[in-house]
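Our platform keeps sequence and structure together, in a single record for each protein. Because each token names a local backbone shape, the row as a whole describes the fold. One such record is reproduced below, unchanged from the form in which we store it:
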Amino acid sequence: MKNLALVTLAAVLVAPAAWAETIAANGPSGAHYASGSAEPQCTVDSSLNVSCTGTTIGGVGHTNATAILSVSYSGTVQCTNHGGQIVEVKTKFTDATSSGTLRPSKNGQLVVPPLSTTAPTAQELLNAATCPNGNWTKQLIAGPTLAGFVYTVTFAGFTQPYISIVGP
């Protein structure tokens, strides 16, 4: 059973996210993937970097949109005082990238660029951790671990995303 879980985890890390969801009610009437374009896909590489492909959405008229990729990582930091007392501290690091405002072309097509994030370094996880006392020594003992990601494309004037991809 344990081996099956490891194989499943390995498949998730290298396979594109097949859980993309497009909700037509959350976009302009007539919005659709432009000819030759497809739903965006998100992948996680062996370094835990997350990349999502771009796409082109047609039929949006003059409606602007925003694409956001937000990725959360975690780690465990060990804090040690001068007397040798050890405290484990969980640390969380969130990285987000945004397309900024996407404006459709004159023919009503919205180009959504690819977005990606890079997993935090050990130093970034250490910097995000807070020990009980600032004089204690920090040491990363586990991480980074990908806690999850959310990729969305949301049209202006809509409260919910048109495209939503949620990863492990």
Summary: The mean pLDDT is 87.
